[in-house]
Every structure is written in structure tokens, then in C-alpha cells.
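Minutes, project check-in

Agenda point 3 was the complex the collaborators sent over. CS summarized: two entities, 711 residues total, and the question is how they sit relative to each other. Sequences were read into the notes so everyone works from the same version.
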Amino acid sequence: MTIDELDQIAKTTQEENKKFDQEISVCMGTGCLSQHSDRVKDALAKAVESQGKNALVRRTGCMGLCAAGPLVLVEPSETLYQHVKDGDAERVAASLGGEPLAELQCNLREHFDQQVHVVLENSGRIDPEKIDDYIARDGYRALLTALNDMTPNGVIRQITESGLRGRGGGGYPTGLKWSTVAKSPSDVKYVICNGDEGDPGAFMDRSVLESDPQRVIEGMAIAAYAVGASKGYIYVRAEYPLAVQRLTVSLREARRRGLLGNNIGNTPFNFDVEIRLGAGAFVCGEETALIASIEGKRGTPRPRPPYPAMSGLWGKPTLINNVETFANIAPIIRNGGRWFANMGSARSKGTKVFALTGKIRNTGLVEVPMGIKLREIIETIGGGVPDEHTFKAVQTGGPSGGCLPAEMLDIGVSYDALLAAGSIMGSGGMIVMDDTSCMVNVARFFIEFCMTESCGKCIPCRAGTAQMHTLLTRICNGVGTMDDLRLLEDLCSTVKEASLCGLGQTAPNPVLSTLKYFRNEYIDHIVHKKCVAGVCNIQAPVEVLV
Amino acid sequence: MPALTPPPLPSDDKRWKIVNGTMRKNGFSRSALIETLHTVQSSFGFLDDDAIKFVAQSLHVPLSQAYGVVTFYHYFSLKPPGKHTMTVCTGTACYIKGTDKLVAAAEKHLGICQGQTTKDGNISLMTARCVGACGRAPVVLTDGELQGQMSGEQMLAQLERWAVE
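CS then shared the predicted structure for the full assembly.
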């Protein structure tokens, strides 16, 4: 496959699409599929045919606004229909070429206008299982350009210049990671894509893998060329069957087109990718644990250094990046590192995908430039808290992150600002809570999660989280004392400082952040024996505090 | 390592050939342990002692290590599932929208705890750590099929339907 051949495929596909007067895209991501968007698509295809319309009905990945699913997009008029049932198909088909159906139309301009799509540029626009659709939207151009016109170092320079930082949560500079692996001397190296999105409340990686899998494969191939690897693994959760299926098809398609395998782009570069299924262990998101899992072992982390960049999978230098990080690579190579660095804030470049969920109107997936205020994401894009409840907190970073109150909503979203506020960027889960959530109970929920997910290798995490859970349960049940609270704070610092891996080191974050911003709720539970949100079931006090 | 003859298939069941296929595809490499266990679970629904022994022997992995892997990962089940499975997602978004109440209601209705199967082997009640459909929270999986914005009544109605089947 050469660039000219790629152009030819792109041209043919574009011309094929131009033969139709309209293109109808039906969202078939997990969210919309659960509302039977597959039936909607079949019904639309049938209606279009029976009414003799010259329209293309296409399956696509996630369009983002899960709350309004099933979603249907009609182009070129860019009409978005929400809550479409298969019974609506005839009407939708009949309206093609005329006035759009007002009663089905989704008019959430403010939801879409503030977003900038880089990672999600093809999501909801292409058929994820058709490689030619991806190629028609500039797919694999970056890989072939890199192979033909750039040196591995040149690729790394662009990535470094872009300022891209790891999107899995750690925020380690991607260019630096790549150059470390590239410099590690070895004839065998590996590239791993971390799709073990165990973070509850986050589904960015699932969505990217379901909507635009080729983009991730292309990013991995470019990375492999840059660091000198010829074998890659994508580690995906077994809980994401649709993502696994679409990846399997996509890998086969990429091989068929000669974009994976030997002598890619008529160059000496060889690269292929295998899928490895996770088996439900949150700790496997940690890179050394993930490597152990690929090796077929229990997913327990090991001390670093040596970092995987020096000694990773089977002891060989290994590059591990998150799904979203790889999804950013192709556009950076296509448009140059400087283009990417122009977006975002001083030390956090580009855009970030967030999974906006919880007590918020427009739940779903959003992509925003770094540096945007939390308030804009929640109130403008998210549409605010529904049902006349009031906003209480937003949780970012999953079990490793923290809860931020209303007065922190004006900070800009960046790695450093969120860290300074007591939370973390994390992989991109953003869960909004209203006045019906009890923050002590939320802290207990997260500690319970970390307690069950602790692999048990190091004591601070294994025993510490269990003790923290006991203390928080006592407080929630109204039998906690101020001594319990002091002990809890002590334990937070022990677990944070002494744990082996990221899971334990960040496990106390939800407790620390709620203690920082919602200490009064802890005091209410302990001293006044009441839960303002009415969540905790506090019995009549068993002991009277003096 | 000396080439050992692979153990005989545990029974005539054709599904063992699928399991063997996964191991062969991976060159009977030890690192294929998790992949193979996935195949066993998707073919048989759970992992019993015979299956773990067979896989361990075939891949030359100590039985202790194979058992360690099976018990480490939540996805693997050592017990056969019921005829139907109700899985309630307990991820953060679902928790905020009250799935703890769904779990409690299902437990009360079925008279079992989460992770158990009713005595007649009809319904299993499971919880999941986030299925990634947070936009549709609260979410349950009925026999693996995702259902969003689930209310307690809807869920109990589904359990009722299964019970009278």
C-alpha cells in the first residue's frame, strides 16, 4: 500500500458516498444499541428502499449524547434526531430532502458548539468496521507519511513538540516515554495499548474502540515505527464485547489492506497486533500489572524501576499507552506537533474526552479543549443538574480522584489544576452529584471499591483500605467518633505514602478530598448523628457523646 | 523443556475441541493461560476443577498457578450460572443513581445474596464493576443484554417473568 493507493481508496469511497442524496448515520454504540438502534437502522434501510429514496443508511459508533439515544444523524443537512424508534423510520425517510421532523429533532446546540473533536472526529461519522470509511477521512495517511518521509526520531520529535501527555490518568509526557523506549537497546520491543478501563464511571476508551478502532491501530503502528517495535497488544476488558468484536474485525481489515503485517507501505517496517482480554481486575490498569496479565499471570504490580520502557513484557523494552493517547497520534502526525500544542492550556495540550455522567441532563461523551472551566462542561455542555436539585460535587479521576465542590467549578481543566485542587485528571470519568448524595457515603463507596480491587501484594493497600472501609462504615452508620476520624486521616497518609502502586497510592484521594471540602458532613454524621442527604441509615444513637 | 504429551480431552464434549483450538493457536504457550480460561468460560459458562486441571496440564502451568489466576480475576466463575442471570452494574454513575437499592431489592425478592444462584438454579444475581454504559445509568444486564435507566419495578417484573417461565 502506497500513499497513491491510499488516495485512490479514499477517492473511490468518497465518490461512492456522493452518489447518494443523503447519508443517514445511526448510532450503534453500546448506549444506543441497548435501546435497539439496530432495529432503527434496519427499519430506516427498509423505509428508504420502499419509498425509493436515494439515501445511504450507515451504522456508526457513538455520537456522544447517550442521554438522547438512539441518535440518528442526517447529512448533508446535519439534522440530528433523538429518541428515534423503529416506528419513526417511515416518517424520517419521508422527510428526506424536505423539512426536518421538528418533534424528533435534537436542538442542543450549546452541547455541541463548545466541543472540539480530535479524538472523536470520526466517531458517529464512519462505519467502525469499514476500513475504507476511515481511509476516506484521512485514515492511515499519517502512518504512511511517517514510514516514507520521516525518521523514527522525527516522529518522536513531533510527538514531543505536541506536548501530548498520557491520557490514562498519569499525564506522563508521551514524547519522553517514546524516546526512552526508542533508546533502550534491544532487538525485540513491544507496544501495548491499555484498554483496561476499569475506572467505574468512565467509558471513553470503550467508545473510541467501538467507534473508531482503526485510529487506535494506526496510532500503535506509528508508535511501533518510532520506538522500533514489531509486535503490539491491545488489552481490552472482557466486559466490552462490542469493542472486542469491532477490534477483531478492524485488525483483519487492516491486514487485508496491507496496513498491518510485513513490509507495510512497501517499507521494511513490520508490525502486527493481537488482542488480549482482561478478566475483571481494576489493578491491571497499572502498567506492570497489565504486563503480568498479558503474560498469563495474576495481575499484580511490581516495583518500578525498572520501568517497562527498559524491561517490560517478557523482559523486553515495552511502550504502554492508553487508548486515547494512541487515538491522538495520527492527527498529530498529520497536522504537526505545533498544531496540537496550540490547543489547550500551558502545560496540558490538546483536547480531552470526558464521560459526563451522574446527576446531569446531557449524559454522554464530550471532547473539550484542555483549560476549559469545569463550570462550562457541567452547566453549558452538560445542561446542569436536572429535576430542580442543586449541584453538590463533581468527581473526577474515578477511585483515584477526588470530589470538587461548587466553589471549585471555575478552575480550568488541566493535569496541574486538578491535582492542586485535590483531585486528578484521571482517565476522564466525570460524575456529577447533587444534594441527594452523601459525601461520606461516596467516600465509602470508593474505598470499598479499592478494598475489593486491591491485589493484596502490599500491606498498606491490602490492610489499610480494609481498615479505612471499617472506619467509614462506622461513621456512615452513626457510631463513628472523632477518634475514628483522626485515625482515618492517619491511615490516609500511610496508605498514600507506603503503597506499592498507583492503586494504593491514590486510594485515599476520595476520602482526603471529601474531608477537605465536605468535612462538615463527616462532623454531622459523627457528632449530630445525621445525614443531610438522607442516604445513610443512622439509627437512634447507641451511645451518648459527652 | 521436554515435550510432554498433551493430556486427553476430559470428555467427548465437542466444546473441549474449541478449548484445545485456543491453546493450539497460541502454541500451547504458558502465557495463553488467561486466553484459554476465557474460552472455557465462554464455552461452558464457568470453570470447574476438571477444566482447570486440563488447561493447566496442557499448558504445563502448575495447578496452583492456574487456580491462583482463576481466583484472582473477577470475570472467572467457579460455579455454574443459573438459567438466567441478572447483573446489576455497581459503577459510580449507577451508584449515584441508586443501584444499591436495586441490588437490595433483587436480593430481597430472590432471597439470595449477590453472587449467588437461586436454589432451583433458575436465576443468578450478579454485580458488575461498571459496564461502561454510564450514560444510561442505572444499568442492568438481563442475560447479558444491556438495559438502561432501570427502575426497581422493571427489574422485579423481569425477575417475575423468569420465575414463571
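Noted in discussion: Residues 84-164 of chain B form a domain with the Glutaredoxin fold (CATH 3.40.30.10).
Follow-up: revisit at the next meeting once the mutant set is ready.
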